[in-house]
């Protein structure tokens, strides 16, 4: 089964380029394109793609607001959104992640990383450009909602603390499994447990919680 993608960018040449790169993948299919956020939201709600790939800066409804409408906390059945941008501006990206984006990339990330991010989002995982993960989350650890970060429903186990730190460092499930010498299914179980305990919807929110509570550097 192909991963179905909607691409939104206000520059036609960029939309065309992204579409060509994704369509060249044997298991990815671009099913819709939009030049602004409002059209992107309409398309996504009608087509229900597996992944939405949105530029942040678009006229009218921008990528952040489009993300919030499709994946925000109030959305009952959120779609997977990956933000892609030319502008390495932390405040925009952090706002997109807060709005529910499952990850983000810079437009110079390359075709391989782009395809990897789409596959990760479709699988319920998240991919954040490694070059900016730590800087982004560290710089804006205190920029979230006012008040202290929510406490976990139940205390985290030692292994969950380790996995939490690895997720915050941008590690994939496969990399975490290798680092801690555990199976991939065990990693997924730990990540699911973290989401449940922290009330997080995805790995991005797990990572942000880790930074907000000073746990991002936790290692065994």
TrEMBL record:
<dbReference type="InterPro" id="IPR000792">
    <property type="entry name" value="Tscrpt_reg_LuxR_C"/>
</dbReference>
<dbReference type="Pfam" id="PF00072">
    <property type="entry name" value="Response_reg"/>
</dbReference>
<dbReference type="InterPro" id="IPR001789">
    <property type="entry name" value="Sig_transdc_resp-reg_receiver"/>
</dbReference>
<dbReference type="InterPro" id="IPR011006">
    <property type="entry name" value="CheY-like_superfamily"/>
</dbReference>
<keyword id="KW-0804">Transcription</keyword>
<dbReference type="InterPro" id="IPR039420">
    <property type="entry name" value="WalR-like"/>
</dbReference>
<feature type="domain" description="HTH luxR-type">
    <location>
        <begin position="149"/>
        <end position="214"/>
    </location>
</feature>
<keyword id="KW-0805">Transcription regulation</keyword>
<dbReference type="Pfam" id="PF00196">
    <property type="entry name" value="GerE"/>
</dbReference>
<protein>
    <submittedName>
        <fullName>Response regulator</fullName>
    </submittedName>
</protein>
<keyword id="KW-0238">DNA-binding</keyword>
<feature type="domain" description="Response regulatory">
    <location>
        <begin position="4"/>
        <end position="122"/>
    </location>
</feature>
<dbReference type="InterPro" id="IPR058245">
    <property type="entry name" value="NreC/VraR/RcsB-like_REC"/>
</dbReference>
<feature type="modified residue" description="4-aspartylphosphate">
    <location>
        <position position="55"/>
    </location>
</feature>
<keyword id="KW-0597">Phosphoprotein</keyword>
<dbReference type="InterPro" id="IPR016032">
    <property type="entry name" value="Sig_transdc_resp-reg_C-effctor"/>
</dbReference>
């Amino acid at each position: 089964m192909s991963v179905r993608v909607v691409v939104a960018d206000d520059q036609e040449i960029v939309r065309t380029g992204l579409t060509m790169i994704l369509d060249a993948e044997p298991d990815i299919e671009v099913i819709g394109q939009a030049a602004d956020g409002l059209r992107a939201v309409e398309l996504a709600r009608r087509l229900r793609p597996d992944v939405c790939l949105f530029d942040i800066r678009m006229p009218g409804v921008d990528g952040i607001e489009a993300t919030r409408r499709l994946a925000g906390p109030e959305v009952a059945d959120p779609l997977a959104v990956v933000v892609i941008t030319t502008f390495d501006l932390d405040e925009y990206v952090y706002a997109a992640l807060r709005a529910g984006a499952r990850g983000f990339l810079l437009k110079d990330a390359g075709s391989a990383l782009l395809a990897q991010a789409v596959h990760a989002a479709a699988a319920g995982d998240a991919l954040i450009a490694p070059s900016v993960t730590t800087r982004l989350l560290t710089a804006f650890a205190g920029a979230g909602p006012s008040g202290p970060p929510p406490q976990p429903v139940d205390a985290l186990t030692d292994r969950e603390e380790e996995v939490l730190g690895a997720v915050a460092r941008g590690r994939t499930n496969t990399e975490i499994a290798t680092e801690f010498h555990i199976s991939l299914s065990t990693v997924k179980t730990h990540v699911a447990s973290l989401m449940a305990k922290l009330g997080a919807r995805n790995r991005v929110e797990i990572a942000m919680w880790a930074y907000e509570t000073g746990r991002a550097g936790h290692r065994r």
